[in-house]
Design brief:
With about 325 residues, the chain is of the alpha/beta class. The protein has helices spanning about 15-30, 60-70, 90-100, 115-120, 135-150, 170-180, 210-215, 235-245, 250, 275, 285-325; strands at about 45-50, 75-80, 105-110, 125-130, 160, 185-190, 205, 220, 260. It binds phosphoric acid mono(formamide)ester. Phosphoric acid mono(formamide)ester (CP) binds near residues 59 and 130.
Amino acid sequence: MAFAQRHLLGLEGMSADAMIALLDSAASFKEISERDIKKVPTLRGKTVINLFYENSTRTRTSFEIAAKRLSADTINISESSSSASKGETLVDTARNLEAMRPDAIVVRHPMSGAPHLLARHMTCPIINAGDGCHEHPTQALLDLLTIRERRGQIAGLTVAIVGDLLHSRVGRSNLHALRALGATVRLVGPPTLVPREFASLGATIHHRLADGVRDADVVMMLRIQRERMGANYFPSVEEYSQYYCLTEEIVRLAKPQVIILHPGPINRGLEIASAVADGPYSVIMSQVTNGVAVRMALLYLLVARSKAEDAESDAGAEVGLRQGGRA
Ligand code: CP
């Protein structure tokens, strides 16, 4: 099996085969959400903790629904409801949670690297649900699944990622994944948010929206991450939207079968016009639907399979012991 990791911390460095294995598995899980009774016993008796130190609508709900559709028990912990407010460190919180024997911990944190820190201290699978400006791997995987469904394949496509690349974990995970899968990536935005140095990541840089979108197969809009901006990166939101808001007029420059993605939450009228977000090329709601399947596949691969392998190796050790005893 190409996907054989203990944790999912990011997509940088992940092989194309591993990503494709995950996408194939996600595609097969989609059908469960269309059933009348949307539940299978795959993770019965398992426990998944969602540890969220940042607000979330889509990711937290999607992980919870995914776990529940696999029959796992889920626990949701937010920063405000945890003992972090009493001075407990992230590692201490996670170690205490691990002492209660969960089978996976899904973590979102404003600090880049927080899930990596936990993975160094813990044995149960850690899933990165977004860490600061670093990566958001499950978002990129659901984006890939959506693109592949609509366009048949990812290799050979031209994908324009537009907006606040500097602060975007979604943009970074997608850039790594799309490059690994053979797409051409354009990064589009003002020089303050898309510095020239990003070209070293294997993308072309465009500061004019029309240049970036022209003849693109896929346009992925990013949210302006005002909560992560310590300085003024553009004069005003009005000026940003004047130059970088995706309008119907700009969409007409892309390929005729273009698809428009946005991870959400969207800022209507700032980075994307309502007519585009709700228009015929938008696949934003399909992204959300696919998020559940991607997270079901991931939980299956990290929890069910790793437990099966542990049981197999335990059985092997026991047989070895018995044989050892006979010898
Ligand atoms: N796309 C995404 O991560 O959305 P949430 O912040 O609502 O989880």
